[in-house]
Amino acid sequence: MTQAVQAYSYAGHSVLADGRLGLSTSGGTALSGPQSHPRFFSGLLTQAAPAAAGLLAVADVALTRYHQPRPGWTRDPVVTCDGGRLRFESFSACGGVYARLDVVALDGDVLDRGTTNVDVNGPLRESLARVGGKDPLHLGVGPDELIVTTLDGAVVEKKVPLPSRWLRGFAEVQVMAAGWDLRAELAGPQAVRFLRSLPRGARSRVWAVPAGRDLRLSSGATAGGVCLSGTGRVATLMPLLRFAKALRVYGPRDGSSTASAWELELPGMRYTLAISPEPARGFSGEGQVLDDLATDEAAGDADVVGMLLNFEPTVELGLLADRAGLPIERVRAALTQLGTAGRVGYDLHEAAHFHRELPYDKEQVAELNPRLTSARALVRSGAVRLLPGDRAEVTTGGGVRQVLVAEGTCTCPWWYDHRGSRGPCKHVLAARIAARATLDETGHAPADGPAAEWPAAHGLAAEPAQ
């Protein structure tokens, strides 16, 4: 797996002293542009104990490898300030669990809006674990808020190997979550009872099935149920149960995936876990972004849409479409494109996207979507032949693959293994790219013919078959 080494440089350690929590920041992006150590917020967290526990939970996810556990590198959480809340995000080391803490119980000054990484170190973890229900907690996000005893402000630097799947995972989660619905909502006592009834085995799979105002467990797929594959992957919810006001469960509206999201309502904040379909499957390989990324307009539209994002609490698609002068579907595809750079996420509670700027150098992350790269290479080489009846043949070294373009089916082994559950295969993607390229001005495709015969007329560079 390709990895980029990301260096986090902090002006000092994050600390908690005398009821003042100072989170040290690394490089990031603010409204005023890129900054080495941006400052976002200074003030009180009006719900200190759940905030401390929630921040610990996000940091614990970043530290954990749920699939084949073994010691790994600590990855520092990402924090975004949108002017009304702080969003802390992380991914598990295995890429199969996404965590986010949205803190809205703030009483202080918003100094700027933007995104950065924050240092959550061992001593800070110990201090946060001791925060009690009536303890004051003043939060400063930025180096100027630190209570540091050094005279010269020594820099704390971490070099962390970040697999490309982390960045791909952020993109996949926001696309998948946009297709999920609220399936159940439990009040605090029922939520506590249900979560504590889950099997303890880390690899156990259960279905949560709505039953009145409660949820019951089922060992098999049930209509209306939400799957939790790997019950041990929601372990970070357990320390938060003493604060739980409600539990909301989200799942795909069409039942096409066994992924799910679990959201705890806490006093003044929400803690959300998104769980991949299987413990061995990270979000990065789900392939749900590929159709949007394959469109010719996506990259250009993303440039336009990206300039309109302004760290607003929610991204309203209709308003964004009006501002950009684009149809809604093209705006969605543009947001997917921006998601591959970590620039947008999706809030299930708000049912809306939100803006962030992950502090990664995109140029260091190699080939984030190899299936799409392979599909474009097939089109360029003239390997795609469009046939009547919305069919296509794709010639590869492994033989000729028969594709139903709209249905997205293929005769390749990869499609038979996954049957669309992990996005389209490279042959389906290639056929769809070629089909779009052949549309004439009236919106009709040629009845037959190899893609290599007409690419120049449609902006594709034809290459001889290899």
Describe the structure.
- It is a single chain.
- The chain has 466 residues and is of the alpha+beta class.
- The protein has four domains: 3-84 and 101-162, no CATH class; 171-285, Roll (DNA Polymerase III, Chain A, domain 2), CATH 3.10.150; 290-339, no CATH class; 370-458, no CATH class.
- The chain is 24% helix and 30% strand.
- A hairpin with a 4-residue loop joins strand 7 (78-81) and strand 8 (86-91).
- Helix 3 runs antiparallel to helix 8 (328-339) and helix 6 (298-308) packs across helix 7.
- The chain is globular, with a radius of gyration of 23 Å.
- The relative contact order is 0.13.
Primary descriptors:
single chain; 466 residues; alpha+beta; DNA Polymerase III, Chain A, domain 2; 4 domains; 5-stranded mixed beta sheet; 11 helices; 27 strands; 24% helix; globular; disordered C terminus
Strand numbers in spatial order across the main sheet = 5-4-11-7-8-9-20-19-18-14
Distance between the termini: 27 Å
Strand content: 25-35%
Rg, nearest Å: 23 Å
Structural class: alpha+beta
The gross shape turns out to be globular
Tally of separate helices: 11
Helix content range: 10-25%
Number of domains: 4
Multimeric state: single chain
Question: Uncertain runs with pLDDT below 50, 5 residues or more?
Answer: 146-154, 446-466
Mean pLDDT: 81
| Number of DSSP E strands | 27
Largest sheet: 10 strands, antiparallel
